[in-house]
């Protein structure tokens, strides 16, 4: 079955819970999954530099008995040396899945249109669903039942914010996006997120409008590929910095950052290195969340049927 995972919207609430439960089982009983991807080869395609995504996929696929093939742009920018359609068709001749970290979501859509194997989004400009899977796993491990918990995201309304809000809402959390005016998600995005889950999503621009939060999450103020420097946007984003005073004011007991972090810009070292920080656990859980997704998608004994999403 050719099933793509491009936006994260392909998962229902029950499937997200199934995936989290599978990841937890893989962590506690790894011996049960050592042959889950035996005989399968998976291409990991990178247009963007990576540490956590590249290593977690490479090591994770090996732990499941599969073979990981890393491709970057050494042979030329994707779509220039040959069309993306031809690229996808050729990769489909040899591999069992394509996991792609790309600059533009349209590239994923083109890959999926022509590939005869599953295409999985490991990051694009609009979505970061694999990170959101790892974040969801981390939150469930930390709290157990997360429904009703308040999560606030501080900073740029980017791909991470969109995917985090989606799965937070699916799990019944109350998500507040605290973003500078002109740097948030659209009203249409917020409406769609609220329709997708059993929790809630709202967006505010005034930092003082967020008065309580169990979990505080932040990401870089300048996403990869943007032309501005951190110092150029510092005046706009500094009121949204995650620091000790904010954590105390909100009464939060968990802090998250998907990394790489620009310390003392979007988050202070004091907070990132504190006992409340879940940042390294998020990084660790990239492996287990992605492995659970690959196991459920590619193992013929499983029947994970994803919804269509473009």
TrEMBL record:
Superkingdom of the source species: Bacteria
Main enzyme class: transferase
Gene3D superfamilies for the chain: Aspartate/ornithine carbamoyltransferase
Record-annotated Aspartate/ornithine carbamoyltransferase carbamoyl-P binding domain positions: 4-141
Domain Aspartate/ornithine carbamoyltransferase Asp/Orn-binding positions: 148-296
Keywords: Transferase
Signal sequence residues: none
Keyword Transferase included in the entry's annotation: yes
InterPro entries given in the database record: Asp/Orn_carbamoyltranf_P-bd, Asp/Orn_carbamoylTrfase, Asp/Orn_carbamoylTrfase_sf, Asp_carbamoyltransf_Asp/Orn-bd, Orn/put_carbamltrans
Enzyme Commission numbers on file: 2.1.3.3
SUPFAM superfamilies referenced in this protein's UniProt entry, alphabetically: Aspartate/ornithine carbamoyltransferase
Family according to the record: Belongs to the aspartate/ornithine carbamoyltransferase superfamily.
Name of the featured protein: Ornithine carbamoyltransferase
Origin species: Idiomarina baltica OS145
């Amino acid at each position: 079955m050719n099933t793509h995972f491009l936006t994260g919207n392909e998962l229902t609430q029950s499937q997200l819970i199934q995936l989290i439960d599978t990841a937890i089982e893989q962590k506690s009983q790894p011996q049960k999954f050592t042959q889950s991807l035996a005989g399968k080869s998976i291409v990991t395609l990178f247009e963007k530099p990576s540490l956590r995504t590249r290593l977690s996929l490479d090591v994770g696929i090996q732990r499941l008995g599969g073979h990981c093939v890393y491709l970057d742009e050494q042979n030329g920018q994707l779509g220039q040396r040959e069309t993306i359609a031809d690229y996808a068709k050729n990769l489909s001749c040899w591999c069992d899945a394509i996991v792609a970290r790309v600059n533009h979501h349209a590239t994923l859509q083109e890959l999926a249109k022509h590939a005869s194997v599953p295409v999985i989004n490991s990051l694009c400009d609009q979505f970061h669903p694999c990170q959101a899977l790892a974040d969801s796993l981390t939150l469930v491990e930390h709290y157990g039942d997360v429904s009703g918990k308040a999560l606030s995201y501080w900073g740029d309304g980017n791909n991470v914010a969109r995917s985090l809000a989606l799965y937070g809402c699916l799990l019944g959390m109350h998500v507040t996006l605290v973003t500078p005016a002109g740097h948030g998600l659209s009203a249409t995005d917020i409406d769609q997120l609220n329709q997708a889950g059993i929790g809630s999503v709202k967006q505010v621009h005034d930092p003082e409008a967020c008065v309580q939060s169990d979990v505080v999450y932040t990401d870089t103020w300048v996403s990869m590929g943007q032309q501005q420097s951190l110092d150029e946007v510092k005046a706009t984003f500094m009121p949204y910095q995650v620091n000790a005073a904010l954590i105390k004011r909100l009464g939060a007991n968990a802090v998250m950052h998907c990394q790489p972090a620009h310390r003392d810009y979007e988050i202070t070292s004091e907070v990132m290195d504190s006992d409340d920080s879940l940042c390294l656990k998020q990084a660790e859980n990239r492996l287990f969340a992605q492995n659970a997704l690959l196991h459920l998608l590619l193992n013929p004994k499983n029947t994970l049927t994803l919804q269509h999403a473009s």
